[in-house]
Amino acid sequence: MSAINNKCEYISKKQIKIIFDGKTYEAYEGDTIASALLRNNIRLVGRSFKYHRPRGIYTCGIEEPNALVQIISEHNEPNTRATIKRVYDGMEITSQNRWPSLRYDLGAINNILSPIFSAGFYYKTFMGPKGFWKNLYEPLIRRSAGLGKPPKNFRSKSTHQYHNTDVVIIGAGLSGLAAAKKFINTKYKVLLIEQDSYLGGVLKNSNKVKTINDLTPQEWINETEELILNSKNINILKNTLVTTYNFTNHLIALEDKFAGKKIDLNKSELTLHKIRTSNTIIANGHIERFISFRNNDLPGVMLASSFEKYIHRYGVVPEKEPVIFTNNSSSLSLLKTLISLGCKPKAYVDSRKKDNIETEIKKILKDKEIQFFSDAEIEGCDGNKKVETITIRQGKSFTKLKSSMLCVSGGYNPDIHLFTQSKGLVKWDKNILSFKPDTPFQKTITLGSTSGNYSFKKLCDEINEKLSIFKTKKVSLDINLNVPNKFSIKELWETKKKSNSNWSKSFIDLHNDVTTKDLKQAITEGFDRIEHLKRYTTNSMGTDQGKISSINSLAIVSKMLKKEISEVGTTTYRPPYAPLSFAAIAGRSTYEFYDPERKTSIHSWHLKNNAVFEDVGQWKRPWYFKASENETMHQAVQRESKMLRENAGILDGSTLGKIEIKGRDALEFMNLMYTNAFSKMKPMTSRYAMMLGEDGMIKDDGIICKISDQHFIATTTSSGAPKVLADMEEYLQTEWPHLQVYLNSITEQFSTFNISGPKTREIMMKVFPDIDFSNDAFPFMTFKNFDYKETKIRIMRASFTGELGYEIYIPPKFGLELWEEIFSCGKEFNLIPYGTETMHLLRAEKGYIVIGQETDGTVTPIDLNYNWMIGKNKKDFIGKRSLSRPDTSREDRKQLVGLSPINKKDIIEEGQHIVELNELPKKIINPIKYLGHVSSGYHSPNLNHSIGLAMIRGGKNLLGQKFFVTATGKTKNIPVEIVNPVFIDPENKRLTS
Amino acid sequence: MILIKCPYCGQRDQSEFANGGEAHVIRPKNPESLSDKDWGEYVFYRNNPKGIFYERWVHSHGCKKWFNAVRNTSTDQILKVYKVNEKRPDLSDFENTLKSPSGEPLVGSGNFAVKK
Q1: Which residues from B are below 8 Å from A246, CB to CB?
Q2: CA distance readout (Å), A428 to A491, A619, A915, B46
Q3: Which helix (H) or strand (E) holds A898?
């Protein structure tokens, strides 16, 4: 039975109610879920990961491997550590990984089958047949193994905060507070970070310290906290856990803003602190480790220091008569605490020899008539879903005791996680039987038990010495103890079992259900490197990262391998120190804030006219316009494409990248950047141009407008604009700093409309009655500037559809007005708006390429038969030399061709392969000869059959030949003829009409 | 995430910068006069040393200026930053900087410890 420690000051006596698995329980404000459950004598809180074994509360902190629960009242937050999470009135909690209920879990069949679920079971068993993994094994395993259920709805719940400080102190226990004292009223900007909602650490969790500077621990904490709060240079962050220690002293810490309070959905419940500091002081203490014995996972087994922490920190004594099992001197503190509360442990089992056990312990045990077993160990414990009997081995004799709780202490590990994350080196210390920090890699200082110093008396000197570099005042700590200052420990990792049954288990990793037998088996199978062994057995790979057990497993493995632990080494400690939810990392970058959306000035019109949008880079572009509710995309695109070639259509091309190039050497620069020759080009004309990489491959294309030799405007693809500008800037700064050229992105300075179709000229004449659009006055690929109302516009004659077309550039402020004007004028000519899909279809009919569709970073202009674009007489341009490299000038490179189906009803699909076989074999044994792929495939409404553009090996010489194109879900291929990629108007009559 | 000192703006977070690969690879003045092999080496071949490395960075979310940096690739320490037109610092300037196997702790990885 549990009892109450009325002396506990940290828990308010305000009673609240919580709901666990549907039942209501009473708790105190300030309780964690674990302390509240223990207060109500609840020991069974969950089922284990693999075997579904009953599990209880093992620890009292972040290291908890078992007691993970789902918080229903917080949008179903899973895998919450019951030992950390504070309760509030009305909190609803359920246990995890059990069905139908926690007491009767059908999955427990796994425990009976456990002899077959040994290390590497999944790797060995679920091998085949093909398809079984995806369709049968994985869904099955996912259902039966695992932890909580993920929340259904995601909501943004964290904000990020940035800090720049001189010193960060991690942990506000005795060492952390004493270190902070050294910085009071100094020039250093200090951040003191504490995981708990109170300062004090070990001083609050045990009664090891009697007085500090003649004050009680609580008085000393209060005095120190007040001094810190009055000092302007130190900030305290409570309820904040440092999870990550990166390069250049970059720390990440997570603050729980609602610890112990009901979450307000309108407020951010977490703050992720991103901290840059010059120096980091790690003082986050130590973590107790367990000992492996038979059934060491039964509910009722608990770490000794955690048991003591529940008494001091939460005022609940989990059991009045526990058995204590230890291999070190620290358990005296728990013994004394229990005695002082009038409780009497059932037995005290110490693995050390009687002579090595402190006289004070022996005296208390004798005075209070407590059963004492020295040089003894726990063989195991038994019971139905809880500890009922405990078997003690002393020499050759066995003693069975009845008790419902067993407190275990296997020694302490310095909490080296953050230190090793910072890439500091650790070394094995024989006195404490653990790894401790050695050489730091960054400006990192470890203090107190984190540094492996378990002596309270030496702490003051350690702090003054290690922090002397800051040249601040010395602190004085006169500490009186309730326990011996000297730490003594005997090596013990696993106790011997009485019999070797296949069903009896001693666990090494409680979280992932790994037994000591699994370690042995893995080594026998050849996994004798610790990193391999870890992955094969999943040892210490749970969300607790083996905090109470990983050193034990290293020790057990080193014994089996007959090596020193320092030779075996540790596995790599990786951030985060404790689970960090994606919601915390995402912060405010969710939904519409994740990535900005760019909209054109015509966006509202598109919305009103039933545009369906496509994302192009960050831009929202109309994909197609629905003429009626039931019109499908295919119908809309066919309609738009046909209407445009018959009448006219208009496209919002504002997203097209536009870069202004100005300066004395603009001409020379453009000649170097693009393949084309611009020197002989007349002012106020434009040209289709290509930009290559130094490897000769096409990077981007666009129309270049030449205003003068000192002034150009380049258009780019919608998504390529930032990259093209950056590349131009790079060459200007790094290779040609002598060129006097200035670049400016003017993409958003203009709204751009592409209007094309046979009736375009009539529409343009109606919109701009003063402008002469005749072929002589306004030939193809020229542009002019005009005054329009109170602004200026630029009109260029160009086309991407193959029809007569103009591009209009106007400041966005006037964009929508002009767009609507064009529509009112175009009505009588059946002008339609069209989207990007129709644009793509029409350009494919005309054989125009699209960057990223026909090209994929391995295509040169020669491969596209665009030799006319290459300024061969230019001495140099980016990529020119590469075009004559042997590989780039090969005859059998993939080259652009058109595809026309022989049977006009067949559909050529984009992405399909071109082969020589009319039918694929049922079983493919030898690779099938691959000739190329379909880069664009559309049904052309103007030709009334499917067309394709393809990249085929040696395609230029294959015109008129017959090949086959594969089809989705069919073995029969489609016969096609290789044709000229220009399907419509190869003579360019329409373009120049 | 490391800190980088832009020679124009000062110390900023790495996320403001973009890496541009090896520095001091000069584009040949007259590409046509180069053999296929020499041109291929200019386009495709770069050094990738463990240790001191001269590399290019651009303050892409800042002043957009390119500059050079000397970084120890095994410790990720940036030892020097300098402008594009400044002289390449001598390798011997960095002899006394922190040497680490790769920032890996001696007993940080089991494999590493056993290999020793």
Answers
A1: 1
A2: 13, 57, 64, 42
A3: strand A894-901
B108 to A420: CB separation less than 8 angstroms, yes or no: yes
Domain borders along chain A are: 156-288+411-489+572-594, 507-568, 603-654+750-843, 658-745, 890-993
Measure in Å the smallest separation between the Cα of B74 and chain A Cα atoms: 12
In this structure, the number of other CB atoms found within 10 A of the CB of residue A372 comes to 17
d(CA A430, CA A418): 22
The dotted CATH code for A156-288+411-489+572-594 is 3.50.50.60
Q: Do you know the residue count of chain A?
A: 993
ipTM: 0.90
Q: Which of A248, A531, A573 sits opposite B110 (nearest CB)?
A: A531
Q: Flag whether residue A892 sits within 8 Å of chain B, measured between CB atoms.
A: no
Tell me how far apart the alpha carbons of residues A82 and A66 are, in angstroms, rounded to a whole number: 9
B105 falls in which pLDDT band (50, 70, 90)? Answer: very low
What would you measure as the largest C-alpha separation in chain B, in angstroms? 53
- Shortest Cα distance, chain A CAs vs residue B62, angstroms: 13
Interface test with B, best of A725, A881, A889 (most B CBs within 10 A): A881
Backbone φ/ψ region at A320: left (φ over 0), alpha (ψ -120 to 50), beta: alpha
**How far is residue A715's CA from residue A781's CA, in Å, rounded to a whole number?**
14
**A603-654+750-843, which class in CATH?**
alpha beta
Query: Which run of H or E residues covers position A444?
Result: strand A444-446
CA distance A867 to chain B (A): 18
| Inter-chain touch B66–A733, beta carbons under 8 Å | yes
Strand partners, A334: none
Provide the pLDDT confidence category of residue B101 given band limits of 50, 70 and 90: very low
Please give the structure tokens belonging to residue A289.
């480790």
Domains with residue ranges and CATH for chain B: 3-115 (3.30.2270.10)
pLDDT for res A127: 66
pLDDT on residue B103: 44
Q: Is A975 helix (H, G, I), strand (E, B) or coil?
A: strand
Q: Work out the pLDDT band at A912, boundaries 50, 70, 90.
A: very high
For A585-591, what is the mean pLDDT? 88
Closest Cα partner for A58 from A517, A413, A495, A408? Answer: A408
Q: pLDDT confidence of A402, banded at 50, 70, 90? A: very high
Give CATH superfamily name and number for A890-993: Aminomethyltransferase beta-barrel domains (2.40.30.110)
- CATH class of this structure's domain A507-568: mainly alpha
pLDDT at A554 exceeding the cut of 60: yes
Can you tell me the distance from the alpha carbon of A358 to that of A360, in angstroms, rounded to the nearest whole number? 5
Predicted confidence (pLDDT) per residue in A149-194, tens digit: 877 777 778 999 999 999 999 999 999 999 999 999 999 999 999 9
The CATH homologous superfamily of the domain defined by A658-745: Aminomethyltransferase beta-barrel domains (3.30.70.1400)
Q: Would you say A463 and A473 are in contact if contact means Cβ atoms under 8 Å apart?
A: no
Residue-wise pLDDT for A229-288, tens only, equals 999 999 999 999 999 999 889 999 999 999 988 888 888 889 999 999 999 999 999 999
Of the candidate ranges A121-125, A165-169, A772-776, A971-975, the one whose mean pLDDT is the lowest: A121-125
| Res A530: pLDDT | 87
Structure pTM?
Answer: 0.87
CA distance A656 to A532: 52
Query: Are the C-beta atoms of residues A566 and B107 closer than 8 Å to each other?
Result: yes
Percent of chain A residues past pLDDT 90, beyond the cut: 80
Closest CA in chain B for residue A277: B3
Q: In what order do the strands lie in the sheet with A23-28?
A: A23-28, A15-20, A91-94, A68-71, A77-81
Q: Residue ranges of the alpha helices (H) in A318-476?
A: 332-340, 359-367, 417-421, 459-466
Q: Cβ of A701: how many Cβ atoms within 10 Å?
A: 25
